[in-house]
Design a protein that fits this description.
Length: 436
């Protein structure tokens, strides 16, 4: 499927971004392990979160929905999962595979999990190695590095583990496995990654404590069901935050967006670039701070970024590269080598596709050097998502300020995290067309 985007004369309106993807996965998984009925509102109906629901159903969990964002999970406790009859399919979703590996490590049965071609290339040793150290037996291609992975869990021992990379997926997998181990599992992160698992596990009554960069969980405590209203995904809102900044006639309001400080790096960096962004906090939603964000046309300037900020905006870097390509001066992005092991190699592919549109962007081993074309313009042309939802949507944002229409090939992948992305663009006044 191709998406054809014409640069609009203005961008105006108000949107509610879809429910947070990270929280949707976690609420369903934790609900499945709890004793009682979990009700989730605002669940993201993107393909990734549907993969999580499908796998949980294969494990014998009774799930109703999603119907307009409502999912009902009838959990029967941590020991209630059943050996799946078929291979579990995590689709394109790294979060599904890694978090479920943590759960499967605690199960006294055999299961096999795989995913699509992109997911079968992504590193899994970062979770399979520490899970094996807890006592799970895991087999996979390249010594347990690549899916398909088969696993026989049960009889886990607690672990104290210092993570070599800042990854919320690894941390969450080990916390979920820690639920099954007698005694205390301690996970130490190199720097803080998103903490949705910690918040939801705490809300479900797990014995979990955060002390600086260490998270401690004492296993074998039953979980209570959750009642969660998931706020909008800031990683989805990010496309419109950048669109509003780079378009010369824009006023966009994004409603009920998650403002968890482990996720708001995009707001900090756009502010540092001169973005005209106003945040109005509106209390809590689902145990997470949430609020409205307004963005208007801005005159952006280049910045340098790296270090502890990177995990707070890792998924927003493709669209931030678009902002940088249109800012005055140079932008340097460092310490982001993790981008190479996402749905695509996001360093190579972002540079390749933005270059086609006339951006001056150089791929580096751990990021980018981008020279803004301020005053100049990007060129509408044919570009490719390479099956990567965030790259596809970032290119659509670049198209909003390009000369002439842009054709984005492989646009169906946008439904991984934002099924209504094209509709939301249209709501702001953009002429978008889908071609099969
Ligand atoms: O835990 C999560 O929900 C996620 C963590 C991040 O991945 P890593 O844990 O690999 O950094 C992020 O890129 C991904 O989109 C979602
Ligand atoms: C990296 C992403 O997701 P996952 O790792 O779950 O596939 C993403 O959504 O950008």
């Amino acid at each position: 499927m191709h998406l054809i985007v014409k640069p609009p004369p203005f961008l105006a309106g108000s949107l509610r971004p879809p429910g947070d993807k990270s929280i949707s996965h976690r609420a369903a998984i934790i609900g499945a392990l709890a004793e009682g009925t979990t009700v989730i509102e605002g669940f993201l109906e993107g393909a990734d979160c549907l993969s999580t629901l499908r796998c949980l159903k294969e494990l014998g969990v009774d799930i109703e929905g999603p119907h307009e964002g409502r999912v009902v999970v009838r959990g029967k406790g941590m020991g209630s999962l059943q050996e799946p009859e078929a291979i579990l399919d995590a689709g394109n979703s790294g979060t599904t595979m890694r978090l479920l590996l943590g759960v499967l490590a605690g199960q006294p049965f055999y299961s096999v999990i795989t995913g699509d071609a992109s997911l079968r290339r992504r590193p899994m040793g970062r979770v399979t190695r520490p899970l094996a150290a807890m006592g799970a037996r895991i087999w996979g291609r390249q010594g347990g590095e690549l899916a398909p992975l088969s696993i026989r869990g049960g009889n886990l021992q607690p672990l104290t583990y210092t993570m070599p990379v800042a990854s919320a997926q690894v941390k969450s997998a080990l916390l979920l496995a820690g639920l099954y181990a007698p005694g205390e599992t301690v996970i130490i992160e190199p720097c803080r990654s998103r903490d949705h698992s910690e918040r939801l596990l705490k809300a479900a009554g797990a014995a979990i404590k955060v002390e600086g960069l260490a998270v401690r969980i004492a296993g074998q405590t039953p979980l209570r069901p959750l009642n969660v209203s998931i706020p909008g995904d800031i990683s989805a809102a990010a496309f419109f935050l950048v669109a509003g900044c780079i378009h010369p006639r824009a006023t966009i309001t994004l409603k009920n967006v998650n403002l968890n400080p482990t996720r708001t790096g995009i707001l900090d960096i756009l502010a540092a670039m001169g973005g005209q962004i106003t945040v109005t906090p509106r209390g809590e939603s689902g145990g997470e701070p949430a609020g409205d964000i307004q963005v208007t046309s801005s005159s952006l300037r280049g910045v340098e970024m790296g270090g502890e900020l990177i995990p707070r905006l890792i998924d927003e870097i493709p669209v931030l590269a678009v902002a940088a390509a249109l800012a005055a001066g140079e932008t340097v992005i460092r310490d982001a080598a993790e981008l190479r092991v996402k749905e695509s190699d996001r360093i190579t592919m972002v540079a390749r596709e933005l270059e086609r549109m006339g951006a001056s962007i150089q791929a580096r081993p751990d990021g980018f050097l981008i020279r803004g074309v301020k005053g100049g313009r990007l060129q509408g042309t044919v570009v490719d998502s390479h099956g990567d939802h965030r790259l596809g949507m970032a290119l659509a944002v670049a198209a909003l300020v390009a000369e002439g229409p842009t054709v984005i090939k492989g646009a169906e992948c946008m439904a991984i995290s934002y099924p209504r992305f094209a509709d939301d663009l249209a709501r702001l006044g953009v002429e978008v067309r889908v071609e099969e």
